[in-house]
Amino acid sequence: MHPIIYDVAVSLDGCIAGPNGDVTRFADEGPVVEDYAQRMAGYRLAIMGRASYEFAFQFGLKPGENPYPAMRTLVFSRSLAVPDTSDVEIFRKTDKGMLEQLKADADGPIYLCGGGAFAGALLEMGVIDILRLKRAPILLGGGVRLFGEGFPGVTLACRETKNYPDGYVFQEFHVRS
Fold this sequence. Notes:
The protein is an alpha/beta fold and 177 residues long.
């Protein structure tokens, strides 16, 4: 059984993107990004919601293209339309049993690529195993929340903390059941 890992940059006020989806204030180079790239090489399956997938369109991704070509990528959406020759798989419903089966069948760790509402739904289902936060020394004042607008309280166990010279802090938490 492989874990679902939510590995995401977050502002100190709990946002993974600012107003209008702005991510320009998060680091795009330096040691925190290099460490993230190393972790990305270890993931085997990417899962995301429709909003996260469509967010990549503004950066040139075309419908049906895989934003993570080195990984099998699943997009969860009731409404997203992609070409028949799509490089991503569309799942029309999300349920705990199906996600547990994905964890059992995966050939390595599963990267939860957001976004906030989708991550909140998975947290509520109890299927997120590890939370990896790249805490940015910024306040965004609003935007996309780490787990959307509502999520259950959970207990976390901090397994690792790493401070970066630029003020970023990486922390890994295991979600306790």
